[in-house]
Each structure stands twice: as structure tokens, then as C-alpha cells.
Amino acid sequence: MIAFLLSPVGRWLAGTLAALALLVAAYAYVDHRGYARAEVHYKGIIAAEHAAAVTARNAEVERQAARQNEAKAREAERIAEMQAEADQLSKQIVELQREASEDPDAGRTALGATSVRRINKVR
Q1: HSE (side-chain half, CA atoms, 13 Å) at 1
Q2: In the predicted model, what is the mean pLDDT of residues 106-120?
Q3: From CA 37, how far away is CA 31, in angstroms rounded?
Q4: Residue 111, Ramachandran bin (φ over 0: left; ψ between -120 and 50: alpha; else beta)
Q5: Band of pLDDT at residue 91, cut at 50, 70 and 90
Q6: Which residues contact 118 (CB under 8 A, 6 or more apart)?
Q7: Rounded to a whole number, what is the distance in angstroms from the first to the last CA of the chain?
Q8: What crossing angle do the helices spanning 8-102 and 113-122 adopt, rounded to 10°?
Q9: Please, what sign has the CA dihedral across residues 17, 23, 29, 34?
């Protein structure tokens, strides 16, 4: 075996194998460095996308909170309007009941002009 390695063909074969081993090692080293660079690059991209997603989520939460507060304000305003209408109707009912109790023709079977006027106010 040693005699073969010392022969010109053996030396050529050993040199070729050594060169091939160096090429494979260089390729593996370059490939690993490229992979490491790509890993760093894409980790940066993923981190940026994650930060953008967090920012977008926070903006959406704030937008929804603002819309909910606007809706609550509109609802409170509408409730106040409805309460004012209810108070006005209550006052009108009290006034009409007072007028009905003061009507001199309240016991008649036919409706008088004042009774018709009170009925028309309700419509």
C-alpha cells in the first residue's frame, strides 16, 4: 500500500483526493456561512414583520376602542333624547288628565269639542 502511494499514480491519486477534500471542506464552509447569513437576514425580516403586526394590532385595538366610545356617546345622547320625549309625554298625559277632570261635559255620552281637541293632541 505504501509502495502504491509512493508511485506516480498513487501520488497523483492522493493529491487529487486531498484537493477534492479541500474543495468539499471549502464548499461546506462557504455553504455554512451563507446559511448563517441567510438565517440572520430572515430573522431580521421576521422580527420586523412581528413588530409591524404588533403595531397594527395595537392600532386596530385603539381604533375599535374609539369606535366603541363614539357608539356609547351616540347611545347616551339617544337615551337622553328618549328620556326627554318620555318626560314630555308624561307631562302631556298629566295635562290632558287634568283637563279631562275639569271638563264640565265629562259625564256625557257624546264627545264635546274640548274632548275632541284632547284626543287630537294625543295623535
Answers
A1: 0
A2: 74
A3: 10
A4: beta
A5: very high
A6: 96, 99, 100
A7: 121
A8: 170
A9: negative
Length of the chain: 123
> From CA 21, how far away is CA 41, in angstroms rounded?
30
Residue 46 CA to residue 54 CA, distance in Å, equals 12
Per-residue pLDDT at 96: 84
115: Cα separation from own chain's centroid: 59
pTM of this prediction? Answer: 0.51
CA–CA dist 117, 9 (Å, integer): 129
If you search the block for the grid coordinates 464552509, which residue do you land on? Answer: 29
Beta strands in the chain (DSSP E): none
